[in-house]
Write a structure and sequence with these properties.
Rossmann fold; alpha/beta; 5-stranded parallel beta sheet; Helicase, Ruva Protein, domain 3; single chain; about 425 residues
Length: about 425
């Protein structure tokens, strides 16, 4: 039978919880404060921990933090007597599975415990089936092209996140590769026959969203059912209205979350939460593992590799697209451009150029006008410091060694150009 460690400084609570929990198939053990609970957990490793938030000398939040340090996969449910959600949201922020507000209903308590056990079983099944990142992470380096420090950091994050089931929040500009990372996480951590269910919150009407995600009784619609054992990917999460965000919190509380939840956003959700424009509880439920997606202009050293990769995907009626190359001046312009559309824009440009070129070497004259116009180039301050010399040489070359014009483009004093 699954085991529950109940942590509360009131013995009357112990007696009441034992009376209602044991008949439902759980074994119960008790501790009167956080310190004693931590000692017992390290010795016995319970399936669930049900802890009151207001205890001394170690309160429930401190216990939660310590348990997560000792065992990141621990399932901790917090009990709070406060009417507000402030303490509950704080618990979610530090990794609580869920919370219960006193006085709670018996059916609500048992349902929450069962959801915790289902989640625990899901974790065990994933470990048993060998779904750790080392088992299915071979394609991560191939998909996330580049050798820059920021892309190396992202690759390591994706590998680590593949080992856990907690929600992931992908934050970054449009076209920065959020969908690709979601697909990688799904492939690395999902079962072979599981689905990746995509929901674009910017396109779905509230009616469709409620039907597909919330369901008739708020316990999950068709999208939630399809994502079981797989991944539910909510794109542009910031587009949901506050009422729907609140309803989504209910779905996440009322489902066992056998699916992997991944959300993406182009905005700073923490800032929106602080401003009261995003539901605080939803934020901490989805943002326990935030991942910042770098913009393409932050990693210009990766662009030549990405260009080669994209060129190989194109189809040219005259010859094999894999043999298409870019002249030095064309590649310099491509690298210097600020790419507001990021990878999506780069792919569109390279695909069109490679598809339509009648020469094996693409020159700067074949590139779109926006890449060749100086007004579209970033200033030196916007460019990475490590690329300064390359960029200055390129601007000097394209301005025909007109130092005054080059200095104006670069935003620096002409004297710096020698």
């Amino acid at each position: 039978m699954p085991s529950v460690l109940i942590v509360d400084d009131l013995l009357s609570i112990h007696e009441m919880l034992e009376a209602v929990i044991q008949p439902t198939g759980f074994t119960t053990s008790f501790a009167t404060d956080g310190e004693k609970a931590l000692v017992r957990y390290k010795k016995e490793k319970f399936d669930l921990v049900l802890a009151d938030i207001d205890m001394k000398p170690m309160d429930g939040i401190t216990l939660l933090k310590q348990l997560k340090l000792w065992d990141p996969n621990s399932i901790v449910i917090i009990m709070t007597a406060y009417a507000s959600t402030e303490s509950a949201v704080q618990a979610l922020k530090f990794g609580a599975f869920d919370y219960l507000q006193k006085p709670f209903r018996v059916d609500e308590l048992i349902a929450t415990l069962r959801r915790g056990i289902e989640f625990k079983q899901f974790q065990s099944e994933r470990a048993h089936k060998g779904l750790a990142p080392t088992a299915k992470a071979e394609n991560i380096e191939g998909r996330l092209t580049g050798s820059s420090p920021v892309i190396k950091k992202l690759i390591q994050q994706v590998k680590k996140l593949s080992a856990v089931h907690s929600p992931v929040l992908l934050q970054g500009e449009n076209g920065s590769g959020k969908a690709a990372v979601a697909e990688l996480l799904h492939a690395a951590s999902g079962a072979a026959d599981s689905q990746l269910v995509r929901v674009d919150c910017s396109l779905s009407s509230e009616a469709n969203f409620r039907e597909g995600l919330l369901g008739a009784n708020g316990t999950g619609g068709t999208w939630v059912q399809q994502a079981k054992t797989g991944t539910l990917f909510l794109q542009h999460l910031q587009c949901l209205s506050l009422p729907v965000q609140k309803e989504l919190v209910g779905v996440l509380r009322n489902t066992a979350q056998g699916f992997r939840l991944i959300c993406s956003t182009t905005e700073d959700l923490e800032k929106l939460t602080d401003e009261g424009k995003f539901h605080d509880e939803l934020f901490y439920r989805v943002a326990s593992l935030p991942v910042r997606m770098p913009a393409l202009r932050e990693r210009p050293e990766d662009i030549p590799l990405i260009v080669k990769k994209y060129a190989g995907r194109a189809a040219n009626p005259h010859f094999d697209a894999n043999t298409v190359e870019f002249s030095d001046d064309a590649m310099a312009m491509i690298t210097a451009y600020h790419w507001p559309g990021n990878l999506t824009e780069l792919f569109q440009v390279i695909s069109k150029v490679v598809t339509t070129t009648e020469t094996r070497v693409v020159t700067s004259e074949q590139l779109p006008l926006r890449l060749r116009e100086l007004k579209h180039w970033p200033t030196l301050a916007e460019y990475l410091a490590g690329q300064e010399k390359q960029y200055i040489d390129h601007v000097l070359h394209t301005t025909r060694d007109d130092k005054a014009a080059a200095a104006k483009v670069l935003g620096i004093d002409e004297a710096r150009l020698g």
